[in-house]
Write a structure and sequence with these properties.
This protein is mainly alpha-helical and about 450 residues long. The chain contains 19 helices and six strands. It folds into two domains: about 60 residues, Rubrerythrin, domain 2 (Single Sheet); about 325 residues, Citrate Synthase, domain 1. It has a three-stranded antiparallel beta sheet with strand order 1-2-3. It has a three-stranded antiparallel beta sheet with strand order 4-5-6. It starts with a helix and ends in a 28-residue tail after the last helix. Bound molecules: carboxymethyl coenzyme *A (CMC). The site of carboxymethyl coenzyme *A has 18 residues, from loops.
Amino acid sequence: MTPTAKSNEAAARTSALAARMTYPGGSVALPLLRGSEGELGVDIQKLRSATGMITMDPGYANTGSCRSAITFIDGEKGILRYRGYPIEELAAKSSFLEVAWLLIHGELPERTELAEFTAEIKRHTMLHENFRQFYAALPKDAHPMPVAAAAIGALATFYQQPDKDRGVHDAVIRLVAKMPTIAAWSYKHSLGQPLLYPRNDLDYCSNFLHMMFATPCEAYPVDPVMAQALDLLLILHADHEQNCSTSTVRMVGSSQANLFASISAGISALWGPLHGGANQAVIQMLERIAAEDGSAAQFVARAKNRNDTARLMGFGHRVYKNHDPRARILKETCARVLQRAGASSELFEIAVQLEEIALHDEYFIERRLYPNVDFYSGIIYMALGIPVNMFTVLFALGRLPGWIAQWLEMREDPDFRIYRPRQIYTGAPLRHYAPPAPGA
Ligand code: CMC
């Protein structure tokens, strides 16, 4: 399915280099793998059989779990590419559905392929009518994220053979097509409003905004500038290689669980505040600064103080030690969207001040902390009228094609095995069962 995957994999296998590890009692040569951008990895697949030892890497910060030809990140240089294409070019010239195709198939679609893909997506936007009872059964104040995860999992009960050839194709189409409906219904349910049918005369993002904000009593004329801004946000979130939720999708899929079950697990992983929830925290931080005295400088001083729990939310990244390219794109979009929406720019102005101060502050320079994707995305969501508890659901909507592409790539990998890490046991040594003494 993905020629790029095959050529990259060949490149990663043919490295003639090796590393030598010495340990008490011997030494072992470990092959080195070289990726298509020159990055090296030590292949430890034979380590345990050769030495009896395992590696230890909590948080997997130095562990490659797979070869992948989907997304390339160079955190030192602030580079992000999908299938080799710079994120800046895709953001400026492409559309979310085109990027979805690119991620899933490995190449940009021909014009006719994109037209067919779009038409197929439109044919599958509706949810089975029984989903109305499914939503009705959930508490009204349910957070839309677990509602969306449960609804995606429930797709496997409506489409029960999603694993075989045509089945996988149909499952991919259904997921991309139904996710906006599932997301919008999760929100409508939380309001107690009627769940709206999709409108297939609208494009992907306009249809989503219609289902979010129209009611049976009142139409919602979608502003194309806003729909375009949403499309851009989805492109920027579409993949980010082996992060927590993507690794979860691969982990669950590695047991050969079906695509719906694997994606549902990915959504649950994304829900956590350390992963998908940071843009919500950025808004809370900006609102707090605005409500107090509006002093960005004072907040930056607090974020630097070890005795203060305040952190500059939306700053810093495990991988990017330079500008997150997505944040740069979003900063420009933010100004444009706020102007168009006629929305207050107070939070944006505070954010710009925070960024300006932090980028010239020794503390942030030394630690190489830059704005990440979450720093400006929340302000744009707010300008679009998206409520804060839906931010993570929109992240999931954007990340969906990446999860699908990674799941498919894993299934085609010749080295495909169930994910099964090892551990260093630290519990009690052998002891023997004795029944409790009578009367004890
Ligand atoms: N504000 C103040 N200090 C910070 C910040 C920040 N936002 N981020 C890191 N630091 C300091 C940290 O205190 C530590 O200082 P020291 O060396 O004196 O102990 C140093 O920088 C290294 O930080 P770390 O926590 O060891 O770095 P990490 O790679 O483990 O964490 C991070 C990365 C993103 C969790 C962290 O930078 C952070 O908490 N940022 C704010 C939350 C945020 O914006 N999260 C969104 C991440 S992007 C979304 C995604 O791609 O999923």
